Amino acid sequence: MLLESMGRHPDFYAFPRETxxxxxxxxxxxxxxxxxxxxxxxxxxxxxxxYPIFIKANxxxxxxxxxxWCQYPRELASVINAVFKYFAAKDGKLIWGEKTPQHIQxxxxxxxxxxxxxxxxxxxxxxxxxxxxxxxxxxxxELSIYRWKNIVKEGRTQGSKLGGLYLEVRYExxxxxxxxxxxxxxxxxxxxxxxxxxxxxxxxxxxxxELGHADSGISANTGKWKKQFSRKQQLKLEAIAxxxxxxxxxxxxxxxxxxxxxAVKFMFWKWADFMRELCSVxxxxxxxxxxxNWANLFHRVNVAIKQSKSNRY
Length: 313
Fold this sequence. Notes:
Elements: H1 2-6, E1 12-14, H2 22-28, H3 38-49, H4 52-57, H5 76-90, E2 95-97, H6 107-113, E3 119-123, H7 126-137, H8 141-159, E4 166-170, H9 171-176, H10 178-188, E5 199-201, E6 208-210, H11 225-228, H12 231-247, H13 263-289, H14 294-310
Parallel strand pairs: 1-2, 3-4
Antiparallel strand pairs: 5-6
Helix pairs in contact: 3-5, 7-8, 8-12
């Protein structure tokens, strides 16, 4: 919601998908060999220009490698920046932004890659996050809120070390007072405020609404966990994250809850979620096409595995 709205700014390009790959590339860049070697550097260009997420965002067409590719700085950041600038230029935008949530676990590495980059960390009640993931992807709520607790905590710790390059925004405050917070975000990004950012796409439809409007379905998207989870389920979630929810000023019954699962239980939750999502993708593809694009399915599994390797929790 936030990036989609910011993408309406005349100077800001919002890449419409989660890349899920940048921390993995940072960790595995040595596999390409020395980028001072033309063949290795070209291999990196080929990898990113043919990366399925970028192809999909480019209407199914692989990106063209610039004719002067060998003149770019021999580093990962220059190639990633060139790819995103390609999309931004197509929309006539000056700067770009990306929205993979898991990247909040890798702020130091991303900061080293892009020293001038700014990070907006939007935080939402962990119970609403768990409810959303359960509703949309059948994710295990206990795992969702455990990961939420640790990832938000890690992101805030890492972000506090970045000074003026890091901004925290509460989802609940944003939807309650969108103009104030969108002005704050624009100022943080050194962008003049534009009223266009107060518009958002209505969920599950092509229409747009004013951000925070009573009919937008956005302001009412807070506290859904109270209806979706039974009292017993709510207590289970608070037993895991009640302490940290309290620290973030979210109302809870169990203010001391700080349970961490065993390694075995954590892996069981994790792989059960992965298999449910994989089965869901197969069923959905089969229902719509009566045939499976195995290359696309393999890509999704491959990205999920790579992303999992990049995740701390």
